[in-house]
Design a protein that fits this description.
The complex is a heterodimer of chains A (432) and B (371).
Chain A: H1 15-30, H2 34-66, H3 69-74, H4 76-84, H5 92-107, H6 116-121, H7 123-134, H8 144-151, H9 158-168, H10 174-179, E1 182-184, E2 190-192, H11 200-231, H12 234-249, H13 252-263, H14 268-276, H15 289-314, H16 317-325, H17 330-359, H18 362-367, H19 375-386, H20 389-418, H21 423-428
Antiparallel strand pairs in A: 1-2
Chain B: E1 13-23, E2 29-39, E3 43-47, H1 54-62, E4 69-74, E5 77-78, E6 89-92, H2 104-114, H3 119-132, H4 148-160, E7 166-170, H5 178-195, E8 198-203, H6 206-212, E9 215-220, E10 223-228, H7 230-235, H8 240-245, E11 250-260, E12 263-268, E13 273-278, E14 287-292, E15 298-299, E16 308-319, E17 324-330, E18 335-340, H9 342-346, E19 354-359, E20 364-367
Classes of the chains: A mainly alpha (432), B alpha+beta (371).
Chain lengths: 432, 371
């Protein structure tokens, strides 16, 4: 009879063979292809340039702000002895090393420079050192410790040594705190300087306030301008845009001198006020924060307009129509459909303008007076005039820190709009 | 497709376009006297080429634009003074027009929030609407993270959720891939069947219009050319434009030699004599265009039944999947196309064969003159 052919059972593939094949496959997928290697090689010059001209200087600046190099390199024996001695008031070897340093200082005039960190960081200690150095320990004294304490009882106080240890440390937060007008007590507590001695923190505060005003003004001027541009026919929009770009390309110095000509004592505004009889004598318009803010607003306007314009171009007329057809009055449609759809552009513009304005140098340096010092002007003062690299680096670090902080906040808020929206975020704003 | 069978407008129309004109200035005219009646609960499609005035008509219906002259009535009342946000008409755009800063759920809840529905209630109803378009797992996503078809479903849900009196759809499937568009077509039809809204739909695609609509209004040059059920428009076009736009057809030019209601005799410019159904023929001597659908051509026709019979040569064959298209050439050089079942080809039917073809007088419609 017709015997049904039973299909021979398929031999089961060996599990090990399968596993091996899988791992081979995975390996071949992981191995970088020749093309990948080539693409990295092509990027190498750029990466090297970035590393050499951007990353290294950046790290160097951050390091300079914290480093405390002078004493460490100048008084090596003293520093070593101090490190080996954990007591509050150190023992004989430390005093002996200090006495040797002072004798050397007596012989070498240039050596006095090594005391600079003391004079900068703690004037009292510096005076103590000066006093002690006037009558240096005699050659071949018995106990250096006894001699020092004999010359000034301050040497027996643990506070003195706490301060010395802090100044002698390889790294110091002194510059960073000093930039905020905060000093450290010998116990390591933070103490805000009295109002009349504050200076640097005011500069930082004023710069931030100015940055905020510039951001607000560019936004108020830039949003309507961007809207007009986005709703214009293409050709006129291009012409206005190139006008904005010309504003960007014009040298900052030229723009600045133009503002000076406008706001000067014999400037355009004063001429007009005098000519029309509105003022009887020329007004002192410059220097003032108002003029700095106006000039900065003018210079940074393109950085606000361009991102907003970009985000507006992405909003279609249909989105507004949809809002209206879904029951929103035209006014409500603008606030619920148009404005939120352009917020990424607004945020990007604000970020750019704020970060640029707190770091701007040329314009405020030319327009402003001493009362309108900005962070970058102070920075240049430290770096060039006073040659205090530590403070200059600290100031630079603050600008960097603020910029990074603002950028981080921006990314936290607006990255989800472009990429994956996490569950947490979507739950938090479950509905509008 | 079931639906209202009667072709003519009644007094029960929900929406009525009365002699609507639209001028955009500088000689650009979008509508030149559009008249149309739309009944409650029907799915009506405006079918026509781009630039035919479909979009303009829909935008005016939705309230984004106003007629230069003429008026649109809703339940007998002029829409001229009712702004778009008070019309309670839902619009689905070709561009989808979702709000990029809101999630799918927030997008769908938007019309409810605008109507003062509480947040909890709006969320609940938005979830239900999204479930109806099979998007429940994606409610938390923003439009940028949704595929084109998913975006269009969100747009549908956003319109359905507030139960609008009329749903206006402006080429909602035009930007989608073909197979996706066909699936969405099916979903739109099911939604309409279950909800029963009045839908005014615009498309350039006749097969989409045929699949979806109760009635179709053919639009060209800013006016409605013909209105009717899909079957009526396909089988009984009143003019050459409709005949061509509703599907493939053979158009033959000729002169009427005798006219005997409902038939007429036509001599083609190439010499053949044809008996046709007179549709828009003024009388003997008039010029006319004949329309015969390719699937109405008969191979080896029965001499007693078919008045129009000719010898033809098979000039070429195109395999079209569900049928085969024959390119035929009559002795006079006239070119005709015929659709035949694939099994006729398999029976041994080849290029260059001499065959007899023909068609019935009722399938050959004598329409408007050329030019």
């Amino acid at each position: 009879m017709s015997a049904e052919t039973i299909p021979a059972e398929q031999p089961k593939p060996d599990v090990d063979t399968l596993r091996r094949r899988l791992s081979e496959l995975a390996h071949s997928l992981n191995r970088p292809s020749r093309l990948t290697v080539l693409s990295y090689a092509l990027c190498a010059p750029l990466l090297l340039l970035l590393g050499a001209c951007f990353l290294l200087p950046l790290l160097y600046v951050l390091h300079t702000g914290l480093a405390n190099p002078v004493i460490g390199s100048a008084w090596p024996e003293f520093i070593q002895a101090l490190r080996d001695d954990p007591d509050d008031v150190p023992g004989e070897p430390v005093f002996r090393a200090l006495a040797l340093e002072m004798q050397r200082q007596q012989e070498n005039e240039a050596y006095k420079l090594t005391l600079k960190p003391f004079s900068q960081q703690n004037p009292e200690l510096w005076r103590l050192l000066q006093r002690t150095a006037k009558s240096p320990p005699p050659q071949g004294f018995g106990s250096a410790k006894a001699w020092f304490i004999g010359s000034d009882p301050a040497w027996a106080q643990s506070d003195t040594w706490k301060v010395i240890r802090r100044i002698a440390a390889p790294y110091t937060t002194y510059n960073l705190f000093n930039a905020l007008d905060v000093t450290l007590t010998p116990d390591g507590n933070l103490r805000v300087k009295p109002v009349e001695r504050r200076g640097y923190s005011l500069v930082i505060r004023n710069t931030l306030i100015m940055g905020f005003w510039v951001m607000l003004l560019t936004l108020l001027l830039g949003y309507p301008l961007a809207y007009r541009l986005a709703t214009m026919p293409r050709t006129p929009a291009r012409i206005v845009l190139s006008g904005l770009l010309v504003l960007l390309w014009t040298s900052v110095t030229v723009k600045t001198y133009a503002w000076m000509a406008i706001f000067d004592r014999n400037g355009v505004i004063n001429e007009m006020l005098l000519g029309s009889g509105l003022a009887e004598e020329p007004l002192a318009l410059r220097p003032s924060w108002a003029v700095v803010t106006v000039a900065m607003t003018y210079a940074l306007l393109p950085f606000m307009v361009l991102p907003i314009y970009q985000s507006m171009r992405k909003v279609s007329l249909d989105q507004l129509r949809a809002a209206v057809s879904l029951g929103a009055s035209p006014m409500r449609a603008v606030f619920t459909a148009y404005l939120p759809a352009t917020t990424p552009g607004i945020a990007a513009g604000c970020l750019l303008v704020f970060v640029l304005s707190i770091g701007y140098y040329t314009l405020p340096a030319l327009v402003a007076g001493p009362a309108e010092t900005t962070i970058s002007m102070l920075l240049v003062e430290f770096a060039v005039t006073i040659a205090n690299n530590g403070m200059a680096a600290s100031m630079a670090s603050f600008v960097l820190l603020i910029a990074a902080g603002v950028y981080f906040a921006y990314m936290r808020t607006f990255a989800p709009l472009r990429g994956t929206i996490t569950r947490r975020v979507s739950r938090r704003r479950s509905i509008q | 497709m079931g639906g209202p069978e009667s072709q003519d407008d009644g007094g029960d129309s929900l929406l009525r376009f009365v002699d609507v004109h639209k001028d955009f200035g500088e000689g650009a005219t979008a509508l030149r006297g559009m008249n149309l009646d739309i009944r409650a609960g029907e799915f009506l499609t405006l079918l026509g080429p781009s630039g035919g005035g479909k979009s303009t008509a829909l935008m005016m219906l939705a309230g984004f634009d106003t007629p230069t002259s003429g008026d649109i009535f809703y339940k007998g009342q002029s829409l001229a003074d009712i702004p778009a946000h008070r019309r309670n008409f839902g619009v689905v755009f070709q561009t989808r027009a979702l709000f990029p800063h809101l999630t799918a759920l927030q997008n769908v809840a938007y019309p409810l929030r605008m109507r003062g529905v509480s947040r909890t209630e709006a969320t609940k109803r938005a979830r239900e609407a999204l479930a109806r378009v099979h998007l429940s797992p994606l409610v938390g996503r923003r439009p940028a993270k949704l595929a084109a078809g998913e975006q269009q479903r969100v747009a549908l849900a956003r319109v359905m959720v507030f139960e609008p009196d009329v749903i206006v759809m402006d080429e909602p499937l035009a930007a989608l891939d073909m197979d996706l568009a066909i699936r969405m077509e099916e979903e739109i039809r099911q939604l309409h069947e279950s909800l029963g809204n009045t839908v005014v739909y615009a498309t350039q695609d006749h097969s989409e219009a045929i699949a979806l609509s109760h009635r179709i209004a053919i639009m060209n040059a800013g006016a409605v050319q013909q209105t009717g059920t899909p079957a009526a428009l396909y089988e009984e076009p009143q003019n050459t434009y409709t005949a061509r736009f509703m599907g493939e057809t053979n158009i033959l030019q000729g002169t009427v030699t005798s006219y005997d209601e409902p038939l007429c005799q036509v001599t083609l410019d190439t010499g053949e004599e044809v008996t046709a159904t007179a549709i828009s023929v003024s009388g003997a001597g008039a010029r006319t265009r004949l329309s015969v659908r390719p699937e109405r051509l008969i191979i080896d026709p029965d001499e007693t039944q078919v008045p129009n019979r000719y010898k033809a040569r098979v000039a070429g064959m195109d395999f079209r999947g569900d049928h085969t298209l024959l390119h035929l050439r009559l002795a006079s050089g006239t070119h005709l196309e015929a659709k035949i079942p694939n099994n006729r080809v398999e029976e041994g039917f080849g290029s260059d064969d001499e065959i007899q073809i023909g068609w019935q007088a009722r399938h050959c419609r004598a329409l408007d003159p050329p030019g």
